[in-house]
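USER: Write out one fold?

ASSISTANT:
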Amino acid sequence: MRFERCRMLFGEEDFQKIQKSKILILGVGGVGSYALDCLYRSGVTDITILDYDTFDETNRNRQIGSDAVGEIKVEALEKLYPGVKTINQQMDMAWVAAFDFEPYDIVIDAADTTKVKIEVAKKCFKKLIMALGSAKRYDANKIEVASIWKTHGDALARKIRNELKKAKFDRNFTVVFSPEEDKCKEKGSCVAVTGAVGLTVCSETIKRILK
């Protein structure tokens, strides 16, 4: 039976909660694709994924589905994860402003653009789990989970905190981040960290569903 081991772990009542949860994943690259895989394999049946990119040869070191070079990411992932809902859409400020986040139990932000991440946080902080910088690192042991206000050693987190303070926004939301010092100047990446961040996001999502 497909989910037998999940049922053993969570118990039937909690497993039903997991199955019925409605999850939105913003960005299905190196982090988001692993969060998707983990949630799908854990029994979540209502997952919506948003991305606008096509798979590129350079994605193949870290992104699930990226052997489908040239294909639209959400379409390739829909084949791998039948039943997921897809939004092939550029996530910009206008989209965030217009989109209705209300139907979702949890919103996972695995997107790249700082301004957009900030707007998502302002709009749905109560149900948000945000992934921060995972490139330029290779030590998965450094990954932490905290409130955005308790982050340290992560340049993207610092930038987001500063912008939120300027906007006089002081609400709390959960982030997954790594204070590991950058190991390169360019966008070097290792799936040991990007994938582990995605799996940590999945774990935090399940914990929140069951809480």
User: Anything to note?
Assistant: The mean pLDDT is 97. The chain has one domain: 4-210.
